[in-house]
Design a protein that fits this description.
CATH architecture of the domain at 219-464: 2-Layer Sandwich
GO biological process, one term: response to nitric oxide
GO molecular function, one term: diacylglycerol O-acyltransferase activity
Pfam families: WS_DGAT_C, WS_DGAT_cat
Order of helices and strands: HEHEEHEHEEHHHHHEHHEEHHHEEEEEH
CATH superfamily of the domain at 219-464: Nonribosomal peptide synthetase, condensation domain
Number of strands: 14
Radius of gyration: 22 Å
Oligomer: single chain
Largest sheet: 6 strands, mixed
Family: Belongs to the long-chain O-acyltransferase family.
Number of helices: 15
Keywords: Acyltransferase, Glycerol metabolism, Lipid biosynthesis, Lipid metabolism, Transferase
Strand content: 15-25%
Helix content: 25-40%
Length: 468
């Protein structure tokens, strides 16, 4: 039987446009050890780990006439060297130059004639550092059968674990005739689906996006607020094909002290800091927020399945990532009041849900935020940009060093995708004593993304106050 894409995964392919590619990325920076880390060692590492991820050696085959959803098929011409690429910055390359490279890489759609992922090994960073930049399509990662490759290439010890036994032999993909025969055979059993598949292929992008929302349970059930248009402002703009990216590293200890002082969560503090930064950024753009002004964030959060007793680390099974709409009070001048407002809102929204505690998520092997950010992007892409201003996805990471080959990861920045009419997407994660922000913006609408990143740090200091 054909290994057919789910309705949700198919919708991501239908919705995707050249200016809004739907892949999730990450920028991991490593200190080069004495023994070295080079392209060949990274190529070998990725090749070994693919044994755990069969989907990463499969490509999407569309069915002629859209008679059925596309199918996954082994890529008989799979070329690891195509997917694991080598790049370099002019020495000594700065973080800003790396981020500029990341922006250009993320702007390029993945090749649908091949498996939907890429990794770039980037050399030339100052301080004898290297970087791995990952790109994974949302259709590829579902958190159950497949996780993000960025999770599996990291280990808790230098040198890594034993590679998976890999006896992969590609199966001959079905011919066009076979794809049609399989689709017709399924249609005989489910005739309504044939009509729906043909109809969905003819719909416009907006209608397809609505179908995606239905696939995750519907807008009304998945979003915990009244559906009304988002406040207008510079964050909602036509998305061009260009990107800008900025990363920021802050100390986790400050967030923990604020959590204790104000009896809230680290997540609440993160959102209060972002609110303060967005308030200052809007003012710098001439959009001075009034007392009741808000920026609406689409916030995907991990929650437990109602039929599950506790969080399952194995492949994130039996857990859900649900999107919530949170109005960030950018009109409030007092940083502590902003924090109290956000803490109350978060507690209210999660009153009927059991959120996944950070300590439970940290039991997941490797670097679980890579997969969680992919799942967050899947949840966010299902909704119309008319109801929110910015995507913010926060996922906690391990507070111990991780390694690729024998190189220690010293920094990690998530890269969340932009969707139609959304000029900014923010990914947040914590790792080894730090909190990292990755800001992905449209090059035309958000050229000053670096300034916004600096304002996050200023907003954190403002929240700490003079009595720190």
């Amino acid at each position: 039987m054909a290994d057919r894409l789910s309705a949700l995964d198919t919708s991501f392919l239908y919705v995707e446009q050249p200016a809004t590619p739907l892949h999730v990325g990450g920028v991991a920076i490593f200190d080069r050890p004495r023994g070295g880390i080079d392209y060949d060692s990274v190529l070998a590492l990725v090749g070994h780990r693919l044994g755990y991820l069969p989907r990463y050696r499969q490509r999407v085959l569309p069915v002629p006439g859209h008679l059925a959803r596309p199918v996954w098929a082994d890529d008989v011409d799979f070329d690891l060297n195509y997917h694991v690429r080598r790049s370099a910055l002019p020495r000594p390359g700065s973080d800003e130059q790396l981020f500029d490279l990341v922006a250009r890489l993320m702007a390029r759609p993945l090749d649908r004639e091949r498996p939907l992922w890429e990794i770039y090994f980037v050399e030339g960073l100052e301080g004898d550092r290297v970087a791995l930049v990952t790109k994974t399509h949302q259709a590829l990662v579902d958190g159950v059968g497949t996780v993000d490759l960025g999770q599996l290439i990291l280990d808790t010890m230098p040198g890594g674990s034993e590679p998976a036994e890999d006896t992969w032999t590609p199966r001959t993909p079905p011919s066009r005739a076979q794809l049609v025969l399989d689709a017709v055979g399924e249609a005989v059993q489910r005739p309504g689906e044939l009509v729906e598949n043909a109809r969905s292929a003819a719909r416009d992008v907006v209608a397809t996006a609505e179908k995606a929302a239905d696939a995750v349970g519907g807008v009304a059930s998945a979003v915990r607020t009244v559906l009304r248009p988002a406040p207008s402002g510079p964050l909602n703009a036509h998305v061009s094909g260009g990107r800008v990216f900025a990363g920021l590293r802050t100390g986790l200890d400050g967030y923990r002290k604020l959590r204790t002082r104000h009896e809230c969560t680290v997540n609440d503090v993160v959102f209060a800091v972002l609110t303060g930064a967005l308030r200052e950024w809007l003012s710098s753009r001439g959009h001075h927020p009034g007392p009741s002004a808000a920026v609406r964030a689409l916030v995907p959060l991990a929650v437990l399945d109602p039929d599950t007793a506790e969080f399952s680390p194995a492949g994130l099974v039996n857990n859900q990532v649900k999107p919530y709409l949170v109005d960030l009070p950018v009109g409030e001048p007092d940083p502590v009041v902003r924090l109290q407002h956000i803490a109350h809102t978060m507690a209210e929204y999660l009153g009927g849900e059991r959120s996944v505690a950070a300590r439970a998520m940290l039991k997941v092997g490797g670097f679980a935020p890579a997969t969680m950010h992919s799942l967050a992007a899947r949840a966010a892409s299902s909704f119309s940009g008319r109801i929110f201003n910015v995507l913010v996805a926060n996922s906690p990471g391990p507070q111990r060093p991780l390694y690729a080959c024998s190189a220690r990861m010293s920094a990690i920045y998530p890269v969340m995708p932009l969707v139609r009419d959304q000029a900014l997407a923010i990914g947040v994660t914590s790792y080894d004593g730090s909190v990292y922000f990755g800001l992905n913006g449209d090059r035309k609408a958000l050229h000053d993304v670096g300034a916004l990143a600096a304002m996050i740090e200023e907003a954190l200091e403002e929240l700490k106050g003079t009595n720190w």
